[in-house]
Design goal:
With 90 residues, the chain is of the alpha+beta class. The longest helix is centred in the first third of the chain and has 36 residues.
Length: 90
């Protein structure tokens, strides 16, 4: 079955535009989205780079320091609390 010349041209254009859409959605659009999210960040550093943070309010100040190793804190009810967030029964 032979297609008319105009049908062949339309098919070729559909393939070209379809490929362009796939390229845009697969490679270009995600890069634009990443750049937009990067521009909206309040702070431009990695969370792993934070070693210490101080929060100051009018009536109190909280100072947080990242520990190199987890710290276990014994409690009165024989439960051990850890800085990793785990609760261990003694």
């Amino acid at each position: 079955m032979k297609l008319k010349r105009s049908t062949q041209v339309l098919l070729l254009l559909a393939v070209i535009f379809g490929g362009g859409v796939l390229l845009y959605e697969g490679a270009i659009a995600p890069e634009f989205e990443r750049q937009r999210q990067e521009e909206q960040r309040a702070f431009r550093f990695e969370a792993s780079a934070i070693r210490q943070m101080t929060l100051t309010r009018a009536d109190y100040t909280v100072q947080l320091t990242k520990l190199d190793e987890p710290l276990e804190i014994p409690s009165e009810d024989e439960t051990r609390l850890s800085t990793t967030g785990a609760v261990n029964e003694a």
